[in-house]
Amino acid sequence: FTQASRLAPNNPDVFIALGSAHKQAGNTNEAISAFEKVTRIDPNNGSAYGSLGMIYYESTRKVRAWDYFRKAVELGEINTTEMLMVMAQGGERNAQRILSDHGIPWE
Length: 107
Fold this sequence. Notes:
Structural class: mainly alpha
Radius of gyration: 14 Å
Number of strands: 0
Order of helices and strands: HHHHHH
């Protein structure tokens, strides 16, 4: 993926794949860099914002995670089911607020 990112430096799909590979390998900083690159290439890429939200949520930077989750919801990337999964991890109030802010019914 690293070589592909050099060959296609403006292809968000390459950086999504690179970020996912880094996240799976436990390379958090590299994953964040790749997903942030996607948001610069394609500011409407909800998948990148959702991935950044999960990375930050799984770390100690939960407040930052909600900003990324909020953006992913705005872009239609995160749905009620995914927010329920986040809620199950202890974020019910934030999940309800984010969904409500975007007119998504709380089920």
